[in-house]
């Protein structure tokens, strides 16, 4: 009931108040939990999800570090699993934002798993592999993880944070000094769900151990060979395309439906805001450029070299490269 809800929230509050704390990119605070930095509200959501979340059978978890292609992966996966229920021309993606078609574990579903769409076996999350609710690991849910070149991820995150408004976070400043400060913090591992490298490595290692359970994708690969990877995603999820569907160019239709060009021009993604317990985000902030390599327009050669060097060092011997 309501009173016990309040009690649990107070308990989470108490737990969070004991954690290591640092200043984030803006005037916010981030808390270190199980090795990763979190904002207050998402961490509260994670604690609740760790305690209560129960996946449905056949649920597929769509996981990512923020700004790595979450919206795209949600749209593609949603289109794949709903293709037999709707014509492409009537797909809910045309009138509903991808983040509302596929809800997120630690925000939308954290406190009310009954909010979920029972027909869609898809759940989004940014939670690091080692912090996923035990119920997800135990039920052996399939997981699709998408990551992206850390330079583009950083640049995308920088732009996003100044378009979104999170509770308790000041969105006003946008100066060179802020950019440099954010860069330093990112390099230091301090960003929402950071350190970036540990996040990626957690899923990478798990995918090597259980390739049948975890599909590891890169934004850049998906961009270069979209058709190939959409087929691969569909097969992995257990929704392979039939020969008949291939003949009818179904894969291409899904790729086109979910393309940056198409999604970003839809009214539902262009105007208005996404509301959550912890945030209010302009929907168009999720659709900025949708390109690989945009970092070249923002990072100095020194900054790029520094990030590359950190990446090289952290991922060395993992077999993963960008
Ligand atoms: P940019 O800021 O570089 O443009 P996330 O969805 O994880 O929040 O990541 C957002 C990034 O993915 C943004 O990158 C955004 O433009 C890009 N993106 C959103 N929808 C996309 C799509 N359909 N295809 C390719 N990229 C997309």
UniProtKB/TrEMBL annotation:
The keyword Signal does not apply. It holds the Pfam family Sulfotransfer_1. Its EC number is 2.8.2.-. It comes from the Eukaryota. SUPFAM superfamilies: P-loop containing nucleoside triphosphate hydrolases. The keyword Secreted does not apply. Keywords: Transferase. One of its GO terms (molecular function) is sulfotransferase activity. Belongs to the sulfotransferase 1 family. This is Sulfotransferase. It comes from Quercus lobata. The lineage of its organism: Eukaryota, Viridiplantae, Streptophyta, Embryophyta, Tracheophyta. The gene is LOC115963905.
